[in-house]
Amino acid sequence: MRADVLREVGxxxxxxxxxxxxxxxxxxxxxxxxxxTPLQTVPVLGQYLPxxxxxxxxxxxxxxxxxxxGTALAVPLALVCSRSDRIDALFAxxxxxxxxxxxxxxxxxxxxxLGLADAPKIALVSLTVFFQVLVAVRDAVRSLPEDxxxxxxxxxxxxxxxxxxxxxxxTLPAVFTSLRISAGTAIxxxxxxxxxxxSTGLGYFIMQSWGMVNYPRMFAGIIALAALGxxxxxxxxxxxxRLLRWKWQxx
Length: 251
Description:
Blueprint: H1 2-30, H2 38-83, H3 85-98, H4 107-114, H5 118-142, H6 146-154, H7 159-196, H8 202-211, H9 215-243, H10 245-250
Helix pairs in contact: 2-3, 2-5, 2-7, 2-8, 2-9, 4-5, 5-7, 6-7, 7-8, 7-9, 8-9
Main location: membrane
GO biological process, one term: transmembrane transport
Domain ABC transmembrane type-1: 56-236
């Protein structure tokens, strides 16, 4: 276990070194104030850490609530649709029409309806996560081999037993995969919403720095936003390892 942790930490450190090296080389080659070097950015990051803290907490709260809300709504609906041909026949056309639409286009509507506080940003990110998780889980359940369900029915299992012992365990890996994919999208959408409408959050901090032509400060905000994504991704990873021990043991 300790060797696994050390290997994972080593992987993160190697990846970080690779990214910093690429950033540094790019900054030296481009030689523009818009792309400061890590050496110019790190002191600014330390200087603005107290100011970044509240914005980091605000963005983390918004994305955490949004992911939880979008997932909580999407998973039950995906399970119902995938196990009922009649409901799926009604719902699938709606899904196919709405899923490709970029959800950010509804931000102006949400701002009019919900104001400028947290609600429109959480609603927008929740909507994005909802569709991504819904599609992934629905497809995962529909791909379950019918033999697995027939086997448990032969043993006298009812519909609830099918969900408990076959459908839900087989679907959880797809849920975590969709959550990891959604994490990056959620943070990107949140940045967009905070940059356009708001006076708090990392998106606002970054765009405010850009408006001040303070590029090292802007990059400090970008690093904080990237850190938020890494934390979210790592939390999903830990939760998956704890809930799906059988998957890692088999692997």
